[in-house]
């Protein structure tokens, strides 16, 4: 009996040890899963920075940085396409610099081609490089790989637009599915009070961020509750809202007129020769557009204070007004470019005639009579060349992007940093409280920054066909903007007085981005389909229309039956019903 009892005790201890061992392994596995989830979160770019901002400034400010990170990912894909399939093949396999007139700085410009002012204006050596359309040769194949450069250039330009449409619509569909349903307002304060804290937090800094996040969520809930119970004088409110919209329309009309006036001046300067004017005259259009984009949103913000909307609705009105401002400015700029393109096309006819005379005089002056020797070789820098309107368009978009970037950074340094330094150090010796009075610390301008991102992306979509370097410039801009604006928000800004919860879906931002994507593709498609390319620059020189590279490829590289099938499939009678069916679905 003692032996049996001892055996039972041993078995019991063995089972307990097994259970302890299983519990220990289970805890280790759970710890590994938790650490792996933390590792995945840490691998998401800027995730911890955005979480910290959200804990102090609320979900509305954090939604901007989430949107910026998403835009950064899109531009990385666009940069990979243009850099890997256009710029690198031309640089490695195309003809080198100096081999053709389109790849050579003209003799009259060589003295200033490397000056900083010239390069900053994206002229000189920058203009005659892979950064712009005009540098690329129209050979069907280049290098030992027989790489089809014109076809690749065209397909990448069209593919970036198609990919952008696909990813924006897909993101909108995913956001709509994740929006979900149900009522999350019942016993809102009770849920926040008793379920907000995470008792597994062990890091003091994380605990501080969690405390700030809970405090911010209570402020958001209080604002929501106040707005639902607010009583207002309906007649006074309507009058103030009508007045605010009238003032906003006057601002938009004044901005449009100013852009129109400046564009007219720029055309006058171009006709008289820009070399006769200074830096401001050469960059007046870009600088005025950047300054309007900097000051008008602030004016709209002051106007919106009359309307007394809920903060979320006020943000949408603000976004709509800034959207109208930027859209009017952008299309005024495009119309001006169209006028300049027409001038370049008229100039091209004269240049063609002069080049014919120059070639004939060169041939007659260098070849003796009855001689069969070939004409002497002329240095490409001395060959006259026609106006390359595609490069001109690309340069304008690059300058506008760079000037807008510089204006944004200067605004952050002066409007946020220096203002915060002044308030912080002069508050002790000033006549009034600078922190709670004028000028106080600045708040983060959500609407202006969101619209700045959207319209900057519209310029990238519109101009990247003529300046393949634009996606790379935008990647650099977004990368530096993330760090600079995160630093500015945490160091120089204060939370908004009326903190509100952002809507659970970012589809409002996406809808505006989709709209500006559609509007950005219209001018690019018009130039591709309707305007003949320049005759002596770019991968489509020698063709009447840029899209002819597709038919040329079908004719030379595919069987004849495939070309017929493609011609039938591209018939408008089939395409239009297909588009209508897709819209209906």
Automatic annotation (TrEMBL):
Q: Which GO terms describe its biological process?
A: detection of mechanical stimulus involved in sensory perception of sound; vestibular reflex
Where do the TM regions start and end?
70-92, 113-136, 151-169, 239-263, 318-338, 508-529, 565-584
Q: Is Protein biosynthesis set as a keyword in this record?
A: no
Write out the annotated subcellular location: Membrane
State the InterPro entries in the record. Answer: TMC, TMC_dom
Q: Which keywords, in A-to-Z order, does the entry hold?
A: Membrane, Transmembrane, Transmembrane helix
Gene Ontology molecular function terms on file: mechanosensitive monoatomic ion channel activity; voltage-gated calcium channel activity
> In the UniProt record, which is one GO cellular component term?
plasma membrane
Q: Which domain of life is it from?
A: Eukaryota
* Family of the protein in this entry: Belongs to the TMC family.
Protein name, please? Transmembrane channel-like protein
Organism whose genome encodes this protein: Phasianus colchicus
